[in-house]
Design brief:
about 260 residues; 60s Ribosomal Protein L30, Chain: A; Alpha/beta knot
Length: about 260
């Protein structure tokens, strides 16, 4: 196998361009950094087309061999210098893949009996989206909808922060209006997290089909989530700070739902 040693190689340039959201949309491809994330993508049915490998940086050869066998992707060996150009941030596990972008939409979400759906509205930071995904996966949330997103689910930092759970948990993007209409059609009780919510979170009945809606730290939720059938819930804030990081709030509410359902 020839080793790619130039950062000007057309395939390397096409891959690095996928850090940009517009390029991901244009190419219909996404960049997945790390063996664990790649393995979870493959197990979830995501189609890998290329895997860039730097043998000098790889630590787990057995995990890599299994990944190669499962993916059916073309394997491209690169030098450490080229891999440094490809890798997202300062991570250097020695393996990075290019995959076809998963098709995601509200119409594709299939809910189980007694679902618990998470909704994130207007969250800007991909790391926060990824952290919420990890908590949702751990607490048994049925699906996550990113409403009016300011970052995309295929951002490499979202994928990394989610530890690949963005591929295993049913997820999609939609407008807030579309999301609200979908929740109502599916007859979910809607609980909106608000600093001034009238219902303490421990008193919210999360045992039945329900949705937990969270907004950005900067703006909170928009007026779309002020309907009469939307129940505002709050977490106690006993110190100087008037809000938690959205991922911390999400974790508290998801695990309260799990506690009640258990």
């Amino acid at each position: 196998m020839d080793i790619i040693s130039s950062v000007q190689n057309p395939r390397v340039k096409a891959a690095t361009a996928l850090r940009d959201r517009r390029q991901r949309q244009k190419q219909g491809r996404i960049l997945i950094d790390g063996a664990r994330e790649l393995s979870r993508a493959v197990q979830s049915g995501v189609r890998l087309v290329e895997i860039f490998v730097c043998s000098e940086l790889v630590e787990n050869d057995a995990q890599l061999a299994e990944l190669f066998a499962q993916s059916g992707a073309e394997i491209l060996e690169v030098t450490p210098r080229v891999f440094e150009k490809l890798a997202f941030g300062d991570r250097a596990e020695g393996v990075l893949g290019i995959a076809l972008a998963p098709s995601r939409g509200l119409d594709k979400l299939q809910l189980p009996d007694n679902p618990l759906v998470a909704v994130l509205e207007g969250v800007e930071k991909p790391g926060n989206v990824g952290a919420v995904l990890r908590s949702a996966d751990a607490a048994g949330v049925s699906a996550l909808v990113v409403a009016d997103p300011r970052t995309d689910l295929d951002n490499p930092n979202t994928i990394r922060a989610s530890l690949g759970t963005v591929f295993s948990l049913p997820v999609c993007s939609a407008t807030s209006e579309e999301t609200l209409a979908w929740l109502r059609r599916n007859r979910l009780a809607i609980y909106a997290a608000r600093v001034d919510g009238s219902i303490p979170y421990t008193q919210a009945d999360l045992r039945g089909p329900a949705a937990i809606v969270l907004g950005s730290e900067a703006q909170g939720l928009t007026p779309a989530w002020l309907g009469e059938d939307i129940r505002p819930v709050r977490l106690p804030m006993l110190g100087l700070a008037d809000s938690l990081n959205v991922s911390a709030t999400a974790a508290v509410l998801f695990y309260e739902a799990l506690r009640q359902r258990s």
